[in-house]
Amino acid sequence: MSSPAAMQSIASEPISKPGAYLLLDALEEQGVEVIFGYPGGAVLPIYDALYERETIRHVLMRHEQGALHAAEGYARSTGKVGVALVTSGPGATNAVTGLADALLDSIPVVCITGQVARPLIGTDAFQECDTTGITRSCTKHNYLVESARSLSGTVHEAFHVARRGRPGPVLIDIPKDIQFETAPYTNRAAASNRNCIVLPEIDHATIEQVVDLMRYARRPVFYTGGGVINAGPAACAALRQLASVTGFPVTSTLMGLGAYPASDPQWLGMLGMHGSFEANNAMHDCDLMIAIGARFDDRVTGRLDAFSPNSRKVHIDIDPSSINKNVAVDIGIVGHAGEVMDAMLAAWAAREAGEPHDSARLAPWWKQLHGWRAKKSFDYAPSKKRIKPQHAIERLYALTRGKDVYVSTEVGQHQMWAAQYFHFDEPNRWMTSGGLGTMGYGLPAALGVQAAHPDALVIDIAGDASVQMTMQEFSAAVQHGLPIKIFILNNAYLGMVRQWQELLHGGRYSHSYSESLPDFVKLAEAFGGLGLRAESPVELDAKIMEMIDSDKPVLFDCVVTQEENVFPMIPSGAAHNEMLFGEVRGDEVSDAGKVLV
Amino acid sequence: MNAANPTLQSVYPVTGDEGAVREVILAVIVDNEPGVLSRVVGLISARGYNIESLTVAETDMEKHTSRITVVTQGTPAKIEQIKAQLGRLVPVRRVIDVSAESDALERELALVKVVATGEHRLEAMRVSGIFRARALDTTQTSFVFEVTGARDKINAFIELMKPLGLTEVSRTGVLSIRRGVERD
Description:
By secondary structure, chain A is α/β, with parallel strands linked by helices. In chain A, 39% of the residues lie in helices and 16% in strands. Chain A has 23 helices and 20 strands. In chain A, helix 16 crosses helix 17 (413-421). Chain B is elongated and about 55 Å long. The A-B interface holds A 132-133, 136-137, 140-142, 144, 146, 161, 165-166, 194, 196-197, 273, 298-299, 301-306, 319-321, 323-326, 328, 572-573, 590, 592-593, 595-597 and B 2, 5, 7-16, 31, 34-35, 38-39, 42-43, 46, 77, 80-81, 84-85, 87-91.
């Protein structure tokens, strides 16, 4: 036990290594399997160390924004922390969009940036920028590493910060000379782990109060969000159980799709600007709203002073600053969604033992919900000649049943149609840019998902405009043998911009028509992938099957009707119960509403 | 232009902001590390809140913590938001609303330069005596006074010095601490 040799090893310093090796050791200890990155001058020592490291796979992207989105896709589909590695200067500035995206959608990502050597900082050196300054407001936290000695400890803390509390992106800026400088390694257990949010103990009196409200509610609704998915599979299971024992209807934000199964009869569909009639009406007319891991985003609430006017509101969130931020609530509970729901389940069961819940009191509410549902707000006019975008998604959904499917999207009309017509029964299957609304997110995100799930069917539902923003990443997919399927709903328009111009600007389609679109089939072939095109409903199914069966990355050019709009829609400046359905004229939006986004 | 239009409603949270605007003094205890001041200030300014005064120095050498005292204004809801947002920052250890207690101690130090001769010079000396200001520097035609006190007192001192030849003011910003045995 206390042999002289052991004594000596405690007394002497551990072996010193260069910073680049310390970084990789720390990543390895954190369980990192894949890095999405792009090399450059200020990270060359790290890439040199990576050359002989077989435990970590590196996926070379084509742009740093793509590296961040791929890391997001990886993180969102696995529940682990995604890692990106980029160089200084332009590498860091290109990463900013991805960092901001991860911040708004609470995605755990660690971004490692190179920096010029310490003596050069502040001298306008080649490829120098103030990375920590630029990224301060678009990261959860960032670090400029001061010495190799603090490097490995900083990496451990960065992972801790990224995944703990409300997850988010963390950036570590490492000057090049530190990557060469030698120092001993600090392991995970010895690193300082500062907490950004100290979660209070669950207050059982408050939980009792909530359960009391639940038992006597006549028109309750669960309003769930991406926080439930971030809280893990156990939280999603707790939500399902909670809905099952209470019999309450469930709706969810765009980010929360999949936490509750879309095939369940208690599911109302997505809510918000393009949500279902029944979900938005339920939010407006409910008497008890239980928000779980959702943040009352403006796309969800619509007009704030007309938002769910007659309800008691309970808000469960891990981030204290989310509670009472946009909407004042009656009971705010700061906590981990899964743990709070478990406590609610226990309290509900205890009350149930004394006196069973009178589920008959919910019957009129369900009758009303069924009435709203009968309006079939997602119905659209079918076409035999042209492919309707809604129909394309419906077919894509139908033909991928029974497969291990993950879906990402870009941003715009196709994103909303994907949310409306592609249904999810499991969490972590749906990757979309909800908060920042980043066009170009979907393709690299799909790549990240595929890297994590090599055998799964990963589909990026895209638009012809969005997909061109990060089109170059298709090359990365071919290089790394990641057979992602890019399903482009091609209407030759910036569809959502065109829709708003139609509704709000009198049909003056200012610069929203995509002139000179590339031939996507030839483009796919030029990249070394497979290109497919469907122009009529007759050939759609066979082409989709061809896409699914291909083992190559596929660009699918689905030519759809050009002037289809996303409905239903809550126009800007309107309340939940003032939805628009198909065929509307511009004058249905008030002048005041036109100034809004 | 639509500010007066009561029908204007935004999908963005532009609530009527119920509640009176009050001034708040926040003491933010932070890890003393590079960039921490920028984080705190950036967070407040990025949300459109103005900082009226700011004081910062390391207060615990062993733990390497600094105390940042921020004076800002807002409705109760906004102030709760600022506190919660500050609490999310990794290097922030605690956020204390010092002004939540009405009788919290508040001090500020100011250096005030007055250039005057004759009767004005004598009057400046008299006023400085009333305010217990110290003359740190004296020439034939000027004084530099050091005055400490709550902001009201310093504001009053400056107002009185204006007609007497006040040329320059340098103020520390507010320092604040709670009364009694309680430790923040």
